[in-house]
């Protein structure tokens, strides 16, 4: 029984390791895309903001925008 549990654990660990490698590869690919965007003249900082906003639900985006506007008004910005 211990061998079965040991094998299962080993397989799970190996799977995690493979996924971590894939994640690193994808992360490197994303960095490359941002580098191309920057070389093309795009503002990478703004692109990252847009990507983050697109991941959000519309209601969450509206709420965040409202809170940011409230803070800006409180600080006299714009």
UniProtKB/TrEMBL annotation:
Residues 2-36 form a coiled coil. Residues 5-76 form the GapR-like DNA-binding domain. The keyword Coiled coil applies. Keywords: Coiled coil. Pfam families: GapR_DNA-bd (PF10073). GO terms for molecular function: DNA binding. This is GapR-like DNA-binding domain-containing protein.
């Amino acid at each position: 029984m211990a061998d079965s549990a040991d094998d299962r654990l080993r397989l799970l660990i190996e799977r995690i390791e493979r996924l971590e490698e894939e994640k690193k590869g994808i992360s490197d690919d994303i960095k490359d895309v941002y580098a191309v965007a920057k070389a093309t003249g795009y503002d990478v900082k703004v692109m990252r903001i847009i990507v983050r906003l697109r991941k959000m639900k519309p209601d969450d985006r509206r709420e965040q925008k409202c809170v940011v506007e409230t803070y800006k008004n409180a600080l006299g910005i714009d």
